[in-house]
Amino acid sequence: MSAVTVAPVRDRLLEAIRREFMPLRSGAEMLARAAKKTPRAARNWLSDKNAPDAEALIELMASSENLRNEVLMLVAERQHARGADTCPGSKSGCDAGLFG
């Protein structure tokens, strides 16, 4: 990765989750349903104790345009920070190898 500093992914993700669900009266329960996880897991995310696993993150991205956009923004920032870095075995670099 280049010298460009990027914010920690976990912190940005949890902040986006809090922005989306903390203002809601039953935010933890709604978050749990959206992620297909337990209310306890959702409360842990909202209190910054844990972060969602990959499966829960995909569920949240599928249910919330705001969270999806935040994750895509994080990806774009990482792509920009990498610049011309490429993955071994990829014709067009890391990004094409993952999504192309």
Layout of helices and strands:
Layout: H1 9-21, H2 27-35, H3 39-46, H4 54-63, H5 65-82, H6 94-99
Helix pairs in contact: 1-5, 2-3, 4-5
Which features would summarize this protein structure in a list?
100 residues; 64% helix; 0% strand; single chain; mainly alpha
In short:
The protein is mostly helical. The protein contains 6 helices and no strands.
Nearest-integer average pLDDT = 85
Multimerization state: single chain
Taking all Cα atoms into account, the compactness measure Rg is 16 Å
**C-alpha geometry:** elongated
Helix and strand content put the structural class at: mainly alpha
H/E element order: HHHHHH
Number of strands: 0
Explain what the structure shows.
With 100 residues, this protein is mainly alpha-helical. 64% of the residues lie in helices and 0% in strands. The protein is built from six helices and no strands.
